[in-house]
Amino acid sequence: MASERVTTWLGEYRRDGKIGVRIGRRGEDLIAEFPNLATLVASRSDGTARVDVADGADPEIVEKLSASAIDALMRHLRGKLTFHAAAVASGRRAIVLIGAGGSGKSTLAAALCKEKSATLVADDTVAIESSDDLGLSSELTVVPTQKAVWLLPTACTALGFEARPIGKRPVGFQRLDTQRLTLTAIIALTFDTGARPVLNRVRGQKAFSLLANAVIRLLIDDPHSQALEFEQLRGLAAQCPVFELCRRRDFSQLGESVESIWRLLDNDEEECAAQ
What we know:
By secondary structure, the protein is α+β, with helices and mostly antiparallel strands. The protein folds into two domains: 1-67, no CATH class; 81-274, Rossmann fold (3-Layer(aba) Sandwich), CATH 3.40.50. 30% of the residues lie in helices and 34% in strands. The chain contains eight helices and 15 strands. The strands form three sheets. The protein has a five-stranded antiparallel beta sheet, covered by helices on one side. The chain has a five-stranded mixed β-barrel with strand order 6-7-13-10-9. The mean pLDDT is 89.
């Protein structure tokens, strides 16, 4: 039918005024369009999907999308929780960094790997698992997803990496040879004008809201999916310590921010929960 060829757009994500991805439906199919790059077409009925690559799209960027955002959208179709985030680990313990686009997630992850020998777990998307799919009441784990951090030229320069003239470049780091890591804490990154970075524990509605704003969604108009996500986030906020790190927008407090996160990651689990 002709109506099934028409896409109804339900939501979009913008950065710097440009659409990064928009989500919609086309008949019974779910659509995620990354303009000028690729389009994900997923069938909700049988879980199958295809990716249509745009003519002239950068293969490197498309590969990154397939390993991050597209995989995250398919996880949401299966009722799994994935965040727009970065993550690093010390040993088998991982910390997840969430925040709005441009909040410095990748930069801090790269700085922790470079300055503190943390291990890269993920950049761009972070997959969280639990044996309890509804309430996340058992041990929470982070699944490694990406091998490189994508950094803007200014971040590359600040960290001592060679920068591309324009656009982000991938910087590879060592990754643990394991499939799962224990989730220690989630840190929401924000900007402020204070004299020093401030890391504070947040709870209740604020913690829930910070987590909800970071979720990657494909089923955005489905009541069952919304109810499942609510229960997952409620269980996550109740079990995993959530923090907010406020620091200046420039790189002047990068070192202090790294120290704050590293102390949290290197603490005993009981100390982290008590903060």
